[in-house]
Amino acid sequence: MKNQRKKIGNNKSPTPESKFRSDFSICSKEKDLAGAISLFDSAVSQNLKLNLHHLNCFLYICSNSIEDNKDVAIDKGFSIFNHMISSKINPNEATITAVSRLAAAKDDADLSFELVKSLLKYNDKPRLRTYDPALFCYVKKSDAEKAYLVEKDILSMGLCLEEPEIAALLKVSAETGNEEKVYEYLHKLRIGVKCVNESTAEIITNWFKGETGAKVASRLKDCDMGRVKDMVLKNGGGWHGLGWITKGKWVLQRTTIDSNGVCCACKDQLACVDIGREETEKFAQSLMALAIERETRSNFTQFQNWLDEHNDFEAIVDGANIGLYQQNFAEGGFSVSQVEIVVKELYNRSKKWPLVILHDKRIRALLANPSNRELLEEWIERGVLYGTPVGSNDDWYWLYASVKLKCMLVTNDEMRDHIFELLGGNFFPRWKERHQVHYTFPKGKLQLQMPPPYSILIQESERGTWHVPLVSDHNDESLRTWLCISHSDLCKTCSEETSSSHVGITGKRKERSSS
């Protein structure tokens, strides 16, 4: 009898709520539009309570079904959104992103943008993806001014544009013939995107090949070319930012860059781009502020004063990193000989001693060993060894010195620790690329890996040529495709120079290779 009752109990029909939960789980996994619509309508007809998660899932399915069932997806999506608002459920960023996509799908860019701006009244913030539908819809309509307004709102929220957004703004600027904006977005690509995708390269190509691109003229006089060179130096190389400086028809070539950083098409030497003077100073100031905050103030101030008086170094050596390199074996310890090899190699290259930074405690321990004493005393006498105080973090010292003195830093430390994250800014990776020297000791022989001879990013030369690197699957940089964009008169001059002085150019290249 008990078993019979239990069997009857097990055959009991599921409640509408439990059936909805089961069907919703299947629907959210399969992302089927027809199933989602049916489930939503059924829940509403049964007066089931739908929460934000349920409704966002339905909206997501609608926004992802635009290509296959555009009209149905749009109509039902807005119906679901209206149900949410009438039910007094506050939308969040995911909600608005989905509905903004639906608005853009019916070419209502204004509504899409208004939806994004409405998020603030619901105490939520948009993400970059939230703005994309409105931005891309304005670009599709060639409404450049409103596209610029979307960009302004993105930046006001503290968000950063990525390649798709910059490429879209570049495209609408090119199509509407706004040469100043084209120039601006080329530089935003240079700053924010290392190598461009094929679709972005096509936008750039269409601009320079088009009629408007061919008509852009320099607003600088011949006497201003000295200013161009000064700006290139001030900015760290690779760009000047003063606007178009040549005029006439552009010549576009797909080419490669040789191992010395010379363009195989126009023969321009690409730059190893550093951070600019202002960024360098800000970087040094932020390092100083963080170091003083975390170190004993008097200790770091003393180092700053010492560095002001000993400011002729061209290289800083992270002594601990080199001395402990590959010493994790039974008899391993601090290898003074490895540090000595690095110091001698740097001296032989430049005839200037590098600055070695080590913990003071480590120096005292090494001096206690007679086999090390003479070498360390020589370094101390020459003023090329600085001991950081007990309890200090020597990272602050060697990094600050290399930034302040604008010199090379020999270390394998990739500087990924949290203290380096505090520095922020996209200039830190660029600074590392230009200043960090890696090293290895294969079979006990030192190999220094110097910074690359050129930077793989968009470059604007003082002659007005542009070089744009494309995304590549190759590990060999010599196989990377670049867009070389120059003027016909520059190409002609280069061709004449090549044919008339072929030997001289070849000699220069050989000289680069041997250096």
Automatic annotation (TrEMBL):
Pfam families reported for this sequence: PPR_long, PRORP
Protein's organism: Lactuca sativa
PANTHER family noted in UniProt: PROTEINACEOUS RNASE P 2 (PTHR13547:SF13), PTHR13547
InterPro entries noted in UniProt: PROP1-like_PPR_dom, PRORP_C, TPR-like_helical_dom_sf
Transmembrane feature ranges: none
GO molecular function terms listed in the Swiss-Prot or TrEMBL record: metal ion binding; ribonuclease P activity
Catalytic activity: Endonucleolytic cleavage of RNA, removing 5'-extranucleotides from tRNA precursor
Domain PROP1-like PPR span(s) in chain numbering: 11-213
GO biological-process terms attached to the record: tRNA 5'-leader removal
Enzyme Commission designation: 3.1.26.5
Every PRORP domain range: 257-484
Protein name per Swiss-Prot or TrEMBL: ribonuclease P
Keyword vocabulary terms for this entry: Hydrolase, Magnesium, Manganese, Metal-binding, Nuclease, Repeat, tRNA processing, Zinc
Cofactor: Mg(2+)
Region feature Disordered, mapped onto this chain: 1-21
Keyword Methyltransferase: no
Protein family (similarity comment): Belongs to the PPR family. P subfamily.
